[in-house]
Amino acid sequence: MKLDAKSPEGPLARKWEKYRGEMKLVNPANKRKYTVLVVGTGLAGSSAAASLAELGYNVKSFCIQDSARRAHSIAAQGGINAAKNYSNDGDSIWRLFYDTIKGGDYRAREANVYRLAQESVNIIDQCVAQGVPFAREYSGELANRSFGGAQVSRTFYARGQTGQQLLLGAYSALMRQADLGHVEMFPRRELLDVVLIGGRARGIITRDLVTGKIERHAGDAVLLCTGGYGRVYFLSTNAMNSNATAIWRAHKRGAFFGNPCYVQIHPTCIPVSGDHQSKLTLMSESLRNDGRVWVPKKKEDLKKHPNEIPEDDRDYFLERKYPSFGNLVPRDVASRNNKEVCDEGRGVGASGRAVYLDFRDVIKRDGVKSIAEKYGNLFQMYEQITGENPYEVPMRIYPAVHYTMGGLWVDYNLMTTVPGLFAMGEANFSDHGANRLGASALMQGLADGYFVIPSTLGNFLGTVGPSKVSTDAPEFKAAEDAVRLGIAKLLKVSEKGKKTVTEFFRELGLVMWEYVGMARSEEGLKRALKTIPALREEFWRNVRIPGTGEEFNKELEMAGRVADFLELGELMAKDALHRKESCGGHFRVESQHPDGEAKRDDANFSYVAAWEWKGENAEHVLHKEELNFENAHPTTRSYK
Amino acid sequence: MSGGMNLNLIVWRQENAGEPGRMMPYKAENISQDMSFLEMLDVVNERLINEGKRPIEFDSDCREGICGACGIVINGQPHGPKRGCTTCQLHMRSFKHGDTIVIEPWRSRAFPVIRDLVVDRASFDRIIQAGGYISAKTGSHADANAILVPKDDSDKAMDAAACIGCGACVAACPNASASLFTSAKISHLALLQQGKAEAKARVTRMIERMDLEGFGNCTNIGECESACPKEISIDMIARMKREYLKAMFAPIPQQKADAAG
Question: Which residues in chain B are contacts of A72 at CB distance < 8 A?
């Protein structure tokens, strides 16, 4: 199968306009003949469901949480980018496009990224109209701040709760449509399979997480807005319920998986404090605007209280190595440098796996009040978790898995390789290349949902036309049977199983972090490719799950997700092994410049790796989408 | 790491909404001060699973105090003893070796128990559904800076919008009133220029819905404010009542009927 990205012809800046000029439309009266199943209610899912319902489609909205408002987009802190140029500092759609392509280390598709930059400005307008309380200046105009990987201030924010406010905006638009009867809500539901009829996605199988009931839902298209797969590392900044089950099961039904090895490791998270740790907490990248990252120059100073280490004995290593971007280098660069100084034995804190993020100088300059206004809630969160006051003692931070750039492969329409099956937001691979810039995830989720899918889905439905399928179709029965069998198999193993789901999950996470984490080597990846299948084999022999399938049972839910992670983890290692270059978040130790910077290999790896599932006992097959850079010409990424 | 606390837990166990529940004793052993409260429960649950028993079910998702999924009454206080803190952000350094901790779900008729500490808060969604939004269409709008919002109003709106919808206010209130939750949304939107057009219809419908769901009335006790993990002020309730009075003395646009027609 040849991958066709379906990017429209013509100059970059005109592609999206041309697409919309030529696409098929569904007339308003006919829209009610179509049903769209939207899975997930984060920024992409809520905004898509609300927008499609507003257009007149029948929408069914599914989420695993007890309410659509709790999807993990809510935890995004820092902000959302938009090329408004309100700061008059030289921003433009082109520059946002260029920064995103460069930040992604030239591994994203130009046409998609340009469209994202174009739509960014509309998102802000839409959100303000909806009542999102963005931060404002005394003039009453919107405020902006800077973020990593950019030299302009284009980030809009709502204190340290931007994701929350944007999600509540999208959720309220969704609830408005629910009130009008255009959306039917299905909370506490988990997607367990996608149903294909005649090669096209026509439905889903879900489990009601309260009663355990297995349900069938039919529709004209299925939209997966189910987020990323960072939880494969067990410890990450993702929520406890974040998982890859929806995209992984879709993958097994024929959707190719794009660039699974591209994982973002965020530089500023609160370090691990012990074996009990269940998740890691991010400290927004916006803190790097004012905080300075350092470690002691001398190992002897590690025992000292940080405030007693004189200025001359501190190594502000990001400012030293990257004078023009300083503490605001992109996330992958910052994370690797943090790891490097810890590997040198200069890491701070009890574990030696942390660096300082120090606000002493800015507090001296601007006062405590000004800092509290900008970051008060983050400082409070830090203190709640660590018991230390960051106004007085520097924060200790360390990188943690935060976001996955990889995901289901989609074309310009956001459609996967399965007709009628779309993937949006973090669930797809499309816009961030090998590294995502800060404040761009919110932008992508909302661009996909509010502005892209209303056009591209219409084009698809207008092309295929309306047709009804029944949930009594044999394909639905077969899919439901397979789901029931899967659950029965887990519970059967459990009769004799000795190890809990969490024990397996933690073990997998350690393997992933060690060998498929921040620095990857051929040797380590090969080891992971041996260890993961062995662990998977043990899981299916020895996992222990309490209770039954016909009741509320969180351990059973988690068991299904871990089973999927045990397969996905292997594909990530395989992808990382095949990509012998370093790019963005993917750092291969064999491919670096003498100064330790990542070495990209455009001659051999300027493509999207899209993996095809071939069955339980067969190898994945690699397909390549060659990337053409007609506008942003690849250069060595330098932030020096 | 200083660790090794042993604690006695007394936990509410209930199969489902239809069956009676009861308090059951458990031991939590070798608990580190750096654990969060939910991580402590994780440890207890791992042990229960290994002993072949059913673990204690509770809701939790982000574990960083923003999603609003978690919520447990700890020693009689929703989200526990620390002010401005969700259950997931409460850490075991707030307790000491040998403590007895009583653990219960939110208790309110409008929040039926699903299992153990998990409750059904769909009534909150229905309150929002009854008008907790601005009816701006999805899609393009006037330039964002065409609407000027004084910084002070915007900051106050953000104070209200910080609500995470966890339901601690209801659990804390002797009347099980949802007034703090409802008023936070009403205040957020009423304070902004964009929200004024529908203010009257919004406050009327949302309050009607709140009453219909079986929440009690507000009698200005103030327990909600002290339990709120986002420290939302009961000034919001005063504003809601003001908005409601304004709506009572003015005709309400028939927005719902128009939209349906």
Answer: 61-62, 67
Task: Give the confidence band of B261 by pLDDT, cuts at 50, 70, 90.
Answer: very low
Report whether A203 contacts A38 (CB < 8 A): no
Nearest-CA neighbor of A71 among B61, B166, B124, B165? B61
Q: Min CA distance, A571 vs chain B (Å)?
A: 26
Nearest-CA neighbor of A273 among B52, B157, B218, B34?
B34
Average pLDDT over residues A390-408: 96
Interface test with A, best of B66, B137, B156, B185 (most A CBs within 10 A): B66
Helix, strand, coil: what percent of chain B each, to 5?
40, 15, 45
Structure tokens at A543: 């996992």
Q: Which residues of A touch B192 (CB under 8 A)?
A: 131, 133
CATH number for A266-401 (one of 3.90.700.10, 3.40.50.11740, 3.30.300.30, 3.10.310.10): it is 3.90.700.10
Q: Taking a C-beta distance cutoff of 8 angstroms, is the pair B61, B70 a contact?
A: yes
Q: Hey, how many other C-beta atoms are within 10 angstroms of the C-beta on A514?
A: 13
Whether residue B256 is predicted with pLDDT greater than 60 in this model: the reply is no
**Does the distance separating the beta carbons of A72 and B67 come in below 8 Å?**
yes
pLDDT tens-digit map of A439-487: 999 999 999 999 999 999 999 999 999 999 999 999 999 999 999 999 9
**Helix (H, G, I), strand (E, B), or coil: what is residue A38?**
strand
Select from A278, A382, A505 the residue whose CB has the most chain B CBs within 10 Å, as the one to mutate to test that interface.
A278
Give the residue range(s) of CATH 1.20.58.100 domains in chain A. Answer: 476-619
**Residue A206 near residue A62, CB atoms below 8 Å:** yes
List of chain B residues whose C-beta atoms are within 8 Å of the C-beta of residue A67: 121-122, 124-125, 165
Q: How confident is residue B1, by pLDDT bands cut at 50, 70 and 90?
A: very low
Of residues A473, A497, A510, A437, the one with CA closest to residue A155 = A437
User: In the numeric block, which tokens belong to residue A126?
Assistant: 């839409």
Pick from A20-24, A313-317, A350-354, A497-501: least confident: A350-354
Residues of A annotated as part of the active site: 331
For an interface test with B, the pick among A127, A128, A556 (most B C-beta atoms closer than 10 Å) comes out as A128
In this structure, what DSSP letter does residue A135 have? -
Residue for token pair 């007895």: B100
State the maximum Cα–Cα separation within chain A, in Å, rounded to a whole number.
Answer: 75
pLDDT of residue B259: 47
Residues 6+ apart with CB under 8 A from A335: A265, A266, A267, A399, A518
- What pLDDT is attached to residue B250? 78
pLDDT of A424 strictly over 60: yes
- Tell if the CB–CB gap between A74 and B66 is shorter than 8 Å: yes
Query: Where do you find CATH 3.90.700.10 in chain A?
Result: 266-401
Q: What is the structure's pLDDT at A78?
A: 85
Instruction: Assess contact for A448 and A407: CB atoms under 8 A.
Output: no
Chain A positions touching B36 (Cβ under 8 A) are 278, 385
- Interface contact flag, B46 A500, Cβ < 8 Å: yes
Pair A83, A96: CB distance under 8 Å: yes
Tell me the mean pLDDT in the region B91-116. Answer: 97
Test B69 with A65 for CB contact under 8 angstroms: yes
Residue B105: pLDDT over 70: yes
Q: Give the domains, in start order, of chain B with CATH numbers.
A: 5-115 (3.10.20.30), 122-138+145-255 (1.10.1060.10)
Q: How far apart are CA B228 and CA A604, in angstroms?
A: 56
- Cα–Cα–Cα angle for B132, B133, B134, rounded to 5 degrees: 145
Instruction: Output the pLDDT for position B260.
Output: 41
- Among chain A residues, the shortest Cα distance to B41 is held by A276
The CATH code belonging to domain A476-619 is: 1.20.58.100
